[in-house]
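Supplementary material to the annual report.
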Amino acid sequence: MRDHHPRPALPPALHRGMTQARLSRRGMLQLSGLAAAGFALSACGIGGQKSEAVDAEDFWAGKEETGHLRFANWPLYMDSERTQLKKFTEATGITVDYKEDVQENASFFGKIQPRLANGDSIGYDMMVLTNGMELAKLIALGYLAPLDHARLPNFAEHAGELYKDPDYDPGNTYTVPYASGITGIAYNPDFVDREITSIADLWDPAFEGKVGMFADPQEIANFGLLRNGVNPAESGMSDWEEAADALREQREAGIVRAYYEQDFIQPLTNGDIWMAMAWSGDIFQQNAEEGTNLQFVVPTEGATLWTDLMMIPVTSEAPVDALELMNFLYRPQIAAGLTEYIGYVPPVPETQRLLRERAEDASGDDREYLEELSASPLVFPSDADYDKLHSYVTLAPEEQEDFNSLFQAVTQS
Amino acid sequence: MVKRKLVPYLLALPGWSWLALFFVAPIAGMLALSLTTGDVITGFRQTFHVANYVDAIATYWEQISRSLLYGGSATVVCLLLGFPMAYWIAFRGGKHKSTYLLLILLPFFVSFVLRTISWKFTLSDNGVVLGTLKSIGLAPDDLAVLNSAPAVVLGLAYNFLPFMVLPIYAVLERMDPRLVEAAYDLYATRTQAFLRVILPIALPGVFAGGLMTFIPTSADYVNASVLGGTHNTMVGNIIRTEYLVNNAYPTAAAITFTLMGLLLLGIFSYARALGTERVMEVQAR
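Predicted assembly:
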């Protein structure tokens, strides 16, 4: 059965462009995070007791479906009709309370950590966070429920090999991917008159004052490492120091204009910066919505692939329902519907074929959008691109402080 | 009779409880936190580790002093722009005074962050201002303002200008214009009348306005992150990062208290310079 769901009159990306402020999804309300963390701190005093790792069998023993699920996700990570959730309710009878409450990994962690430390419910039974430092902390603190893969057959069958058994979560013990994105280089061909192919171009004095870099310690570290020919996933302390030196050199040469949290798209579009570190999905959305011609490249030295992951907090009141939803989202048709809206890399490779089929059945703007989407190397990287994509280095919580201070000394001068 | 005496205290009770609950308690907690050691994984233990302050100041003295410099510069810009505005509205505003005041407050109806982001468009290399100047040849093609110290200071001054204008206006508006007329009758020049009559009367307003701009501008982090570039990081950005990204709560708290201490120190020397009676006068109003 092909599933035809009612489509909005406008292409989703256009619709989103018109209804959304020009800030990217990632960290839209980042600035409100400080207040949230402040509340968390005053509520809990000072938390942080290390819990014991949870044994899978003990955790799942006696757990049953409750019929209701609370799901925290990032803004604009599902269409406003919540099409996929409606189908989930139709198929399973489980209702979902969907909240776009995750605006930034760090502040979300700050919000839920005290409650998890007390063993209290965090108000969500399932959530989506990125592979990164907060994930490492959640795992180290024993705050995540080990997944019961016997109940995730769709993940086993449909997830791409690259998304199985990752470094940051061996054996997918605690997480399965929701969507991925590439951190590469974007440039504006209106200003840059040559083809940009490598990270070394970001160090070219010809672009003095016209380069934008990310402020996030892991993101910027990756580019420093890749420039030095080091695979981020296998890097260590001495590599980090050399990477920080290279990045400091780039800054002191006046090449970097600013270190961006996430708002790099607008300056790139209007020429304040000519090229920048960038997230694939944001570039795809910008080009689709605004008709810009920004170029995105996976540099020759390599780039990184980050993944937003679904996970279940140990205090979840409906873990079985959460597993069912995870499994449901790995149905290829459902995954294709999600990808159609969000424009990031889906963990289910089959979606590309399905979206092509949908394009053939559609007409007009819809067809054009779907064709563009299914052919986009930003949403469906080629095998050659995938070969150049590395994972983030997985930092143990005790390494994070040194790592952060090394690279924050570069970005927060 | 006894009851009567208690009434003012009872009336003040909600206010005091409010302050105790939402100001004194968090600040005491924060102070305690600034002396702890540990991390978010193992928890933070009270060790009265004063070295937190030493480390924080040693690492971030540059950003701390830069914040005071930017805050001070923004305050001066606000004063230079705000005093004439307040003066004009108070003495030349006529029956439209409240309209002009509303105009000054109007930007406040827009979110702080959005206002700052709109400056990013205004100051953009090819934006409304620079683009126009460049196209008519009044500015060199490679002129850039965005992502620099002047951009941050301008952004701060823009965002906090009303805090300077309103207190000065409040003082000038109540001034008796006959005092200036009397000065002229006594053969004072315009400069003399301004320096010896108007300015002394306006000083409490300038003092209050200075405080109300300097304190928030020094601690601001939005302008530096939106309009700043490299070497423009302010202490507010550092506190945010230490708190949210690094979960280094003791360091964040120590920097917060260092900044607070420096600001208090500045305020007291400022009050000294302008005379304490004037401070009391401002408070009395």
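The radius of gyration of chain A is 21 Å.
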